[in-house]
């Protein structure tokens, strides 16, 4: 499917933020790892969360959904022994479940997306599982991956945080269920510490105790714990809303996005600070972000590691800012559904943007007059790239056509519907 995005000078209206994908997948996982029945209110519906639904069902969880409420009867530390799991294109779901699969004797994670998730590395988690009496068959750290477990052991575990925090989160979900106590040491650096905070928050809500160092590089995990069956409420999603807010920022707008908690622990909440630094007129009160955009923005510099999943949307806004913007400490963007630095910036250049890359930086020389557009560009199978390129299309003189735009459903199936509801001129064609 292609998205034909036309120049749109004005956006107006209210949008209910979609539910957080990150919190939904984590709540579903702790529900599956609990003994008893948990309830999740307002779970997200996306390809990623559907992958978690599918896989925990295959592993023995019983799921029921009525309206905006999901119930999960968990399997505890005794998942059903299955031979194969299909996580689709969901990297976090794969990594979280690789550790859970260690309780099974032989599970193969298949490769349905060789040009996206199939290219992403998982060596660091594989190495950590190897320290826990778990053998892993793989192809250079990539899918397909077979976990040969059945008797994982705790103890001293080291895991690198250089590429992704998801490897650490995977171990944090699983190690409390082991018979032994564990000590986890993070090697090198730890990317996306804020997201690890979300993992610890959810695990704590489920009744599990983990002692974490202040810098999140060392953990003591008592073994023989059990997840408690609880009720959880999923908050609104900042990463998906970032693109809506960026669209409002680069146009003349009067847009309100609802269900975005001021006190949220989502790192992408930082987009409010980024947009304010860009001089975007906005308020954030009572869970409502209200943008009254005038299309006039100024350049910014920000550490992107604090809001990884919203960097591309903020870069899209910076394309139209006065001056040169810099987003640094973002190398982990290279290891997502695509290389979100090189691939994304190549498409921005086609649209007429003036951008540069370093290994861990994105530099944007803003064009307040707008960009030319009028070209067809590639989505690279990446939902975040699609949403960000749409923002650029709204301020392109001749619009943009985005190929493979249906991949936006990975995290935000209703993204284009929501944009059109506030006046964006977008046409979807097969």
Description:
With about 425 residues, the chain is α/β, with parallel strands linked by helices. About 30% of the residues lie in helices and about 30% in strands. It is built from twelve helices and 28 strands. The strands form eight sheets. A four-stranded mixed sheet has the order 26-27-1-28, covered by helices on one side. It has a four-stranded mixed sheet with strand order 2-17-19-18, with helices on one face. It has a four-stranded mixed sheet with strand order 5-6-4-16, with helices on one face. Strand 9 (about 135-140) and strand 10 (about 140-150) form a beta hairpin. It is globular, with a radius of gyration of 21 Å. It starts with a strand and ends with a strand. About 55% of the residues are buried. The model has no long low-confidence stretch (mean pLDDT about 95).
What is the element layout, followed by pairings?
Blueprint (H helix, E strand, L loop, with lengths): L1 E4 L4 E7 L4 H12 L1 E2 L1 E5 L5 H12 L3 E5 L2 E5 L10 E2 L5 H10 L6 E3 L13 H8 L4 E5 L2 E7 L6 E7 L4 H9 L7 E9 L2 H13 L5 E2 L5 E4 L5 E2 L2 E3 L4 H12 L2 E7 L12 H7 L4 E4 L2 E4 L5 E2 L2 E3 L7 H8 L2 E2 L1 E5 L13 H10 L2 E5 L2 E5 L9 E3 L5 H12 L5 E3 L12 H7 L4 E4 L1
Parallel strand pairs: 2-17, 3-15, 4-16, 7-8, 11-12, 20-22, 21-23, 26-27
Antiparallel strand pairs: 1-27, 1-28, 4-6, 5-6, 8-10, 9-10, 12-14, 13-14, 17-19, 18-19, 23-25, 24-25
Helix pairs in contact: 1-2, 1-6, 2-3, 3-5, 5-6, 7-9, 7-11, 9-11, 10-11
């Amino acid at each position: 499917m292609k998205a034909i995005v036309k120049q749109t000078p004005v956006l107006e209206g209210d949008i209910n933020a979609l539910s957080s994908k990150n919190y939904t997948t984590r709540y579903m996982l702790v529900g599956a790892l609990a003994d008893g029945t948990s309830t999740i209110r307002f779970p997200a519906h996306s390809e990623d969360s559907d992958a978690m639904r599918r896989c925990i069902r295959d592993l023995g969880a019983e799921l029921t959904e009525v309206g905006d409420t999901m119930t999960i009867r968990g399997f505890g530390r005794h998942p059903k022994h299955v031979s194969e799991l299909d996580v689709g294109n969901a990297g976090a779901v794969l990594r979280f479940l690789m550790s859970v699969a260690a309780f099974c004797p032989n599970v193969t994670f298949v490769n349905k997306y060789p040009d996206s998730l199939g290219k992403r590395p998982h060596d660091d988690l594989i190495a950590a599982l190897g320290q826990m009496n778990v053998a892993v068959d793989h192809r250079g750290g990539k899918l397909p991956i077979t976990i040969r477990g059945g008797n994982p052991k705790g103890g001293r575990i080291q895991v690198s945080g250089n590429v992704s925090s998801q490897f650490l989160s995977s171990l944090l979900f699983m190690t409390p269920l082991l018979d032994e106590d564990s000590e986890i040491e993070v090697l090198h650096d730890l990317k996306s510490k804020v997201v690890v905070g979300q993992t610890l928050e959810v695990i704590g809500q489920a009744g599990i105790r983990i002692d974490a160092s202040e810098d999140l590089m060392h953990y003591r995990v008592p073994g023989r714990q059990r997840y408690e069956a609880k009720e959880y409420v999923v908050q609104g999603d900042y990463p998906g809303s970032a693109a809506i807010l960026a669209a409002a920022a680069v146009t003349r707008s009067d847009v309100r996005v609802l269900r975005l908690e001021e006190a949220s622990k989502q790192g992408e909440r930082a987009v409010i600070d980024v947009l304010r630094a860009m001089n975007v007129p906005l308020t954030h009160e009572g869970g409502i972000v209200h943008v009254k955009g005038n299309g006039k923005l100024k350049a910014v510099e920000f550490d992107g590691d604090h809001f990884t999943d919203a960097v591309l949307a903020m870069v899209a806004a910076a394309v139209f800012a006065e001056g040169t913007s810099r987003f640094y400490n973002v190398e982990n963007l290279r290891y997502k559904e695509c290389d979100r630095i090189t691939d994304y910036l190549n498409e921005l250049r086609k649209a007429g943007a003036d951008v540069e890359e370093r290994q861990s930086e994105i530099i944007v020389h803003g064009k307040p007059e707008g960009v030319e557009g009028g070209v067809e560009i590639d989505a690279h199978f990446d939902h975040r790239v699609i949403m960000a390129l749409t923002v650029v299309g709204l301020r392109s003189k001749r619009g943009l056509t985005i190929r493979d735009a249906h991949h936006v459903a990975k995290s935000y199936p209703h993204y284009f519907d929501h944009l059109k509801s506030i006046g964006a001129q977008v046409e979807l064609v097969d």
